[in-house]
Amino acid sequence: MHPYLLSSARLPWPVDWAAQFGRAAPLAVEIGFGNGQFLLAMARERPYLNLIGLEISLPSLRKAERKLSRDGLPHARLVQGGAESFFWTLCAPQTVSELYINFPDPWHKAGHHHRRLINERFLHLIATRMPPGALLDIATDHIDYAQAITDCLQQSPYFHSRRSAPFVLEDTARVRTKYEQKALDDGRACHYFKWQRSATPAANAFPIPQEFPMPHVVMRSPLTLDDVARQFQPFYTATPTAEIKFIDLFRSTRHNNLLFETYIHEEPLSQRLGLSLNARRAGDWVLGLHEVGFPRPTAGLHQAVQTLADWLVSLHPDTEIVNSTLVDWLNPQE
Ligand SMILES: C[S@@+](CC[C@H](N)C(=O)[O-])C[C@H]1O[C@@H](n2cnc3c(N)ncnc32)[C@H](O)[C@@H]1O
């Protein structure tokens, strides 16, 4: 089967989309494609686009994958992931020619409005990834959200409307989505925003995060791993760019190994992973990343390993770091 479904965890930062599709073509993205009706229609009607459907729902991704495969549409791909990290990590500046957001979750309650996708920050982010003239189409049936989207778009220097008004209330040219049909059947008006990236440059406040070599620290200590395990208590630390929690500790019953369950949050991603401490025959320890999963060797990961190494050193005056691949995360460009 054609690999329609891409795992964002395994994609490089940023993705060379032309190489991924096997051809250079304008890149169009639909965020939150739901049952895929709109995405499938676009893939059928506009085969000259490289088309990406983005979703967080795995059942929706699986269903759309089956439909794309059935219809043989190799110029479409599906990516599981959130919109913000998709643009921030996977899209190079000025690469997205068309963006469609159909009926984004409205988050009705006032206390949940901060979860809405479309806000000033998100418009700034996508503006850094869209060249002048790129299309931005948004649709919603939620009056309050429509007003908020209008306000954000009108205040943004990076977009202007392709119509004489911020939105139109009818768009017969488009294939209806499931939520659109439901709104129309229930008698709710739909608001269609047809905007375009302006020529105003957008400062790149969302640089693609850097990846570093896998962190690896060799240490020497008179302590045993049991000594270490006895002294461990969950702890938390914050650096200027990351929040790090050492949540728990597990002892292997088969190997001379400890596994530190670790959570790292740094913009634009969160990772939950295992750091392992192996005691080698020669008497030294190796601290590094456990092989399970696909952790990203970010600055935050290096900071977590550095923090853990510092804690291990603090346990005994004769514990020392022999060598390491840790980067100077305060000055990561060097
Ligand atoms: C209200 S539904 C609309 C579905 C479809 N566009 C339609 O009009 O029928 C919103 C969809 O967006 C997806 N979604 C929500 N937040 C998302 C995000 N941050 N990134 C990508 N998709 C998201 C949800 O899983 C859901 O399928």
Describe this structure in words.
It is a single chain. The protein is an alpha/beta fold and 334 residues long. It has 2 domains: 5-197, Rossmann fold; 216-324. The chain has 9 helices and 15 strands. The strands form 2 sheets. Strands 1-4-3-2-5-6-8-7 form an 8-stranded mixed sheet, sandwiched between helices. A 7-stranded antiparallel sheet has the order 10-11-12-13-14-9-15, covered by helices on one side. Strand 10 and strand 11 (243-251) form a beta hairpin. The longest helix has 16 residues, at 299-314. The chain is elongated, with a radius of gyration of 24 Å. The two termini are 43 Å apart. S-adenosylmethionine (SAM) is lined by residues 31-34, 54-57, 60, 82-83, 102-105, 117, 177-180.
Topology:
Elements: E1 5-7, H1 17-21, E2 27-31, H2 37-45, E3 50-55, H3 58-71, E4 76-80, H4 83-90, E5 98-102, H5 120-129, E6 135-140, H6 143-155, E7 159-161, H7 178-185, E8 191-197, E9 216-220, H8 225-231, E10 235-238, E11 243-251, E12 257-266, E13 269-279, E14 284-289, H9 299-314, E15 320-324
Parallel strand pairs: 1-4, 2-3, 2-5, 3-4, 5-6
Antiparallel strand pairs: 6-8, 7-8, 9-14, 9-15, 10-11, 11-12, 12-13, 13-14
The chain binds S-adenosylmethionine (SAM).
